[in-house]
Each structure stands twice: as structure tokens, then as C-alpha cells.
Amino acid sequence: MDATAPSLTAASPTGRVPGLLAGLVDAAHWLAAHWYLLALVIAACWAAGEGVVRHLARQASAQRMALELVAARHFDPGLEEIFRRGVQLARASTSMPWWAPRRAKSVQIRLRADGSSPLRYRIEGPAGGERLLSITPFGPAVTVNRGRPIADRPRRHVVRAEFLLRGKPTAPLRDVPLDPDPLQPLIDAVCDLRAELGDLAEIRLDIQRAPKWKLRARRVQLMADARRRERRETQRAARWVRQDATGIEDSLGWHLQQLVSGKQGGGGGGGGRRLVMPPVPRRVEPAEALGKLADDDHLVRVQLLVMCASNTEGRAEARLGQLQAALDVFGGGSRWAMRGWNLGPWRIGADRWPSRRGFERRWSLGHCQPPRPNWVRLEELTGLLKPPTMHCRLPLLASDLPTFEFNNPDLLLQGIYQQPDGRRRLIASYAQETLFEVGVGKAGGGKTERALAQAIGWAHAGGGLMFVDPHRDSWPRALPFLAHDTLMDRIALIDLGAHGPRPQVSSWNPLGMHQGQVAHEVVEATTDAFASALGWEDATAPRALTILTAALAVLVAVNEAACRAGRPEDQATVFHVRALLTDPAFRAAALAGVEGRLDEETRSWWQAVFPTLPADSFAVVLNPIARLAANPVTRAFLGQPTGRYNIRAAMDSRMIVWVCPGGNGPTDRLTTALLARDLLRAVRSRRDIPETRRVPFRPYFDELITLTGAAPETIAAMFEDFRKYRVHVHGMTQLLARLPTPVRLSLVQNASTLATTAGSQSAIAPITAEWGDQPSPDIVAALDRYEHYLSLTVQGRRVGPLKITGPYLDDFFAHYTRPRNTAALEHAARTIAGAAPLDQLTAHATDQLGRVSGFLTQLAHTTPPASKEQHYK
Predict the structure, then answer these.
(1) Which residue pairs, CB below 8 angstroms and at least 24 apart, start in 191-196?
(2) End-to-end CA gap in the chain
(3) Residue among 280, 272, 197 nearest 237 (CA)
(4) What pLDDT does residue 225 have?
(5) With 60 as the cut, is the pLDDT of residue 843 above it?
(6) In sequence order, which residues have a C-beta less than 8 Å from that of residue 601 and are 6 or more positions away?
(7) Are 489 and 832 in contact (CB under 8 A)?
(8) Which residues pair with residue 424 across a beta bridge?
(9) Lowest-confidence range among 101-110, 290-299, 478-487, 706-715?
(10) pLDDT grade, residue 5 (50/70/90)?
């Protein structure tokens, strides 16, 4: 037993403690001597762990999706809707597999401008959050589309930047109002981007939920810092209190006060030094010390990366400076500041080592790994959690509206647009989408000048058109720009003004059948023209309509017989209605000659009803015809058997027809109504041509107030029906309110382009109301001459309203002017229209009754009785 006692003592724990301590001391000495080995082990472990984390993060980033949000023009969300969207984004950032590293658990907002749109708004995030993010609280005002991968071609000059939150860490960013849109500074920064120079600007905002343990650690640190500051302030205040008390006691005044008080007290000795109570540190309130970090709810960590590129040196750097200034708008107690520092002319930041590699990795993979905790509340990101709203002024890019190209038949000139960088370009709309156009504005504002520029450009591109101008001022204005040899054989002038010492007038027979018209369509068009100009309706003037219809049916049948007989020069005109109704001999010859060509109802009316009518019942029909006959110009124009005017042929052959009715009196209105109704008939007759073979044609109606006074229902029908036949009307007027209600409603409803110049606010208000009063009538009323606001339809969507300058012909069409050829063009235009001296045509119209009567006599003798009986059967 005694022999074993020492060994038990040596093996006891008490005996091993000094040896263990000695071993630890030796190990510490060894590690101190070989510290680099420990550092290598730690570095290797860190590198291995970082490699595993990056590998997992790459795998998680490969399972991402993209959504593109397109806002409607009326998109106007409230704060609650935007906040709910932010909650969705924060929740979607966690829709990752459990093994995904935190840096991959984020949702990215991409604001991109590359020339395809003013600012593309794109959301990228975990594939598991697609269902959550596809349904937004914004409703139908925002369309969510599946985003396709974006492949950027390399640019020669690229700059990168990362923005961090600077300032007081607990202070929020500035509360930016929603009107104007918080995105407006960013859009203004990229508004002068030029795609042809390779310009590109993109902002990426990564959002992820803030890590709880880091927040707790940060709160502890902030509370400790707050308490430390409070203690320092208390100590500083106590020091100042003691200094103030000492200064007072050492002052002469205080000693004199003590002497005086001592004497008054009987000299029993002055009081001692006063007792000073130092201030006590106040309690630090967590809400005051932590600020926006006091609560976990809706607190996120963000990462803001920016990249600008261009193929032109200096443009990318300038763009980055513009974006940096735009982000300054969000600065308040906290602000966005660019990471890095300046070293002379160089900047050490995301573009250089050691930050560039990490920047590119986070940029390409979407990892949220900011170098410092950028903690913000969702309310601070309100301006970035939504697409641009209706309060955002979007720039007009070249991709939004094409640039006008001379001699391009696919484009229609609209005006001159000044871009944000001061460059001016001629903008256009696509001809096939410009179906109807309305121009409003005061006289002399430039609406006719703009229409002339558009018409001239369309004519030189090979298009057909009809320009109706009651005042004729447009013809001499456009003449020098149309005086080209290539256009000489395509221009016809129908001028009813009869100017000059030897006036010439064209001719047209509304009842003529020599051009292959359909009989009942001619009768209907002429009757409707009289009814429209004279205000006849079935309820108010049924007898007048019946008499005129029956008379025209007979005269059209006479003309049809004359054309079949090869004698079109013997056709009747509208002036023969009087002879048919009042001359028994002419009526008997006409009815006998066309008896087999009339339908049963018309023959019955002439046989049974006409003889019972009193003589004074014809006055309402004969009175307007008598007025037409009393005017030598209208008698010459309408009194020829075979006029050259044929608007259907002009459409199909791309003619340029200039029509000047001559005025706005009663006779002129009736002539205009006949022309308008014939245009409607001719356009509708194009139904016999397949739609793909219909040649586009553009009538321009200047002074719609004058034209619609003659044919309101006809003009309204044009704006409703012509699109089907590839005929597109352009109307100009000073006042929409002066137009008849059917015309005004059809104009505004079907207009592809709405334009207005300056004018009174009451006159402009109907147009600006269609734009939601943006711009307001008072802004439009202050426009200068030749300036317009207009909205267009491009690729199925509305563009504008935007401010343009109307093209002035002498400036932008100077290369088209041919002043030496104007006389030749006018002669050719009158020749193609079949113009002849007025007196000659008047005499020919007077003799036409005799020629028609002679033809009817011969027709009655050549028609066998059997044939007549067969017609009755």
C-alpha cells in the first residue's frame, strides 16, 4: 500500500495543472513565434468558406426571373399602394431555397434607358417570388410582362459607381412628394440620351430584408453612443456651471455684495461659497436615439449601383454626373453619396481596383452586398417602388416618334420637335396609322401652313390628295413647292373664283353617267346634297325630296341612254330639272325616251301622282336650281354634259386635286354640298376594289366651319366611314363649338391626331379636355405663332400631347421651291381639270337644253313599240 501511494499522488489533477499551464504557455510562445501559420490557416478557412458561399450564391442567382412593368398614361397611385408594393418586394426577396446565402436573397429594381424607351422599369428577383410580384396593388393601370434577357453590346466607354447612404445613420431620406413624380429628376438626367451614339444609363436598386442580429448589434452600439454623448454633454454642462459659479464668486460685484450683506447682518462674517448642483444626465429615449432603426417593421437593406456607357468619349462621365445630381434630390438627414475618393484628377471608386471586380460580380449576379449597412424604411423608397406616373414628364425619343424623311410614302410630316438637348428634328407619324386629323386654333396661328407642309410632303412622296379651300389662299402659297415636272401631270385645279380678266372654269356634271357611275348612287348623292344644304328632312320637306328624287331619276336615265348610244355630249344636267317639271313637251319626250329604263315605282309616280300636284309645289325645288343658274360660274361649272372632274378616278390614280369653291354664300354652299356628297359617293364606291389594292387618299378640309355649314351630315359621315376605304380626312377649324354637333363628335371621337395652336381658352378647352387638361388651356393659349400642341397615334398608342413648331414652308421646303415653273404648273393644272373660258362654257350650258331635247326626239323614234311594251312588262 505504501509503495503505491507516490504514484497515485503524481497522477492526481492537482499535479497536472502546472504541466497544462506550462504547455499552454509554450503553445502561446510558439504561436507568437509562428503567427504567420495561424494567419494562413485563418485565411484558408475564410477563403474556403467564401468560395462555398459564392458557389451557392451563383447557383441561387441562376434561378431568377424578370418582370417588366409598363404604366398607363393615367397611372396615379397612392402612398398606400406604393407601400404595399414595397412590402411585396421585401417579402419576395426571401423566396429562395434555405441554403441560399443572404447576399442572393434580394429583389432588384432596374431603371434602364437605352433609347428604346424613356425609362424601362424592370423587377428581377427569385423565381419563387414571381407569382407574388406578378399581381401588383397598382391594378390595371400597370401591365406586368415577363421580362426577356437583356443583351448589351459592348460600349467603348463605361463608368461605374456605387452610392452609399451618408449622414446621420438614423436619419431618413427626404420625403419626396408624388407630384411631380420622384422619378422626374432621373428621367431628366437621361432625356438627352442618344441611341445612335451608344448611350446607356442604368440604375439598379437591390432590396433585401435587414439581418436581425446586425440590427440588434447596431442598436446596442447606437444606444451606447447616445448614452456616451449624453454623459459628455452632461459633463460639459457641469464644467460650464462650475466655471460660471467660480467666475461669479471671484468677481468684484460678488465681493461687494458679500460685504454689504455682512454689514447688514451685524458683521458676523460673510456666507461661504455657494453650493453648485451639477446637471444630471437625462434618460436616453430609444425612439430618439435609434430614429428609423427603432423598429424592425418594414426596414430593409439596399444597394444602389449605377452604370453609364457610350461610344463617345466623355458622354458616359457626363451622364453619371447628371444621375448623381438627380439622386441629390432624395437627400435629407441622410443622402446618397458616391463611394470612393478623389486623388487629384483621378477618382478611386467602383471603376478601379480593388472595388471594380466586386462591383461587376454584384452587377452581373444581382447580389446585394453593400460595404456598409444601407438601412432604410420602405417609406423612404416611395419614389423608386413604382413606374413613372401621370405626373412624370417623359421625353420624346426617336424610337417613340419617327423622324420625317422626304419622299418617304410611309411617313406623314407633323412638325418640328425640339429635344431636351436643344436639337431640333422633323417628326412624323406613320401614314397608315394617321386615319383622321383635327387642327384647331385661331386665324393666322399656323394650322393651314402646317397642313400645307404635310400635303406637299405627301404629294412629293407619291400620295394622292384633295385640298378644299373656300378662300383659295392655299393654292398660291403651295404653288411654288409643287411646280415640279414629276407632279405636273398629277395636279388638277378646280377654281370657282373666276379671277382675272378672262376667267376660266372647270366643269362637272353631277348627273353624268359617262364615267361609269351607278345610277341610283348618283340620284341619291345629288338629292342628299340638296337636302343637306337646304335643310330638307323627311319630316319637314317630304314633297320636295320626292319631287327632286323622281326628277333626277328621269334625268339620270336619260344620261345613261345617251352614254349607251355613244352620245355623252347630249347628257342632261341638274338645270334640266326645271324643264322636266315645267315644260310638258320636254317632260313627255324624256318620259317616253326612258320609259323602259325606269323602275315601276318611279313610272307609277309620274303617271299617277305628278299630274295631281299643284304648280306651286315645284317652287321649293326650282328655287335653289334657279339660284345656281343665275350665277354664271356655277351655271358654267354644273351645266356641261361631260365634265372633267372625277374624284373617284383621282383617288385611284394618286391625283392632287385643289378645289376652291369660291365663297360661303347660299349658292356656294350648295355647290360645296354637291362636291362633298359626290366625294362620299365616290369613296363608298371603292368597295368594288379589294382592300389591299385601295390606293390611300387624303382630303384636306380647310375652314371646316364653312364646309360643314353646307353639308354637316356628309362631313360627319366622312369621319366615320372613310377609314374603311383608306381615305383619311384632315380637318382644320378655328372653333370646334361652331361645328355642327354630329361633325364635332365624329371629329374628336375618330381623330388619330389632335392639334391646336393658340386661341382663346374657351375655344381650346374642348381639345385640352381630351388630354386631361395637361397642358391646361391657359398654357396653350399663350403659344406663339406656328407653335402647336398635338397628340398622335404611333404603333397603336397615343404619343403626346407634345409641343412642336409647325414647319414654315420657306424654311424647311426651300429645296422644293420652283418659282419659275409656277405659271407652267397653273396652266397644266387648269388643263387637266378641263378649264375653259367662262363665257364659252356659259353659252354651251345655255344651248344644252336643245341638244338634250334633240336626243330625246331621236331616241323616241328609234325605240320600237314592242320594246316599250316589253319594258312595261
Answers:
(1) 191/118, 191/395, 191/419, 191/420, 191/421, 192/395, 192/419, 192/420, 192/421, 193/113, 193/114, 193/115, 193/319, 193/397, 194/115, 195/114, 195/115, 195/116, 195/397, 195/398, 195/399, 196/115, 196/398
(2) 157
(3) 280
(4) 86
(5) yes
(6) none
(7) yes
(8) 418
(9) 706-715
(10) very low
Measured distance CA(324)–CA(166) in Å, rounded: 14
Helical segments of 124-211, H only: 130-134, 184-189
- Given a contact cutoff of 8 angstroms between Cβ atoms, the answer to whether 526 and 575 are in contact is no
Residues 178 and 392: their CA atoms lie apart, in Å, by: 9
66: number of Cβ within 10 Å: 18
As given in the structure block, the three cell numbers for residue 55 are 458557389
Long-range contacts made by residues 582-591, C-beta under 8 angstroms, separation at least 24? 582/618, 582/622, 586/849, 586/853, 586/856, 589/853, 589/856, 589/857, 589/860, 590/554, 590/555, 590/558, 590/856, 591/554
What length is written for the chain?
Answer: 873
Write out the three cell numbers for 832.
387637266
pTM: 0.78
Compute the half-sphere exposure of residue 274: CA atoms within 13 Å on the CB side of its CA. 16
Residue 2 pLDDT > 60, yes or no?
no
Tracing cell 340638296 back to the chain, one arrives at 530
Mean pLDDT taken over the chain? 85
C-alpha 328/C-alpha 173 separation (Å) is: 10
**Residue 822: which of 500, 499, 454, 478 has the closest Cα?**
478
Q: What is the pLDDT of residue 710?
A: 73
CB-based contacts of 19, cutoff 8 Å, min separation 6: none
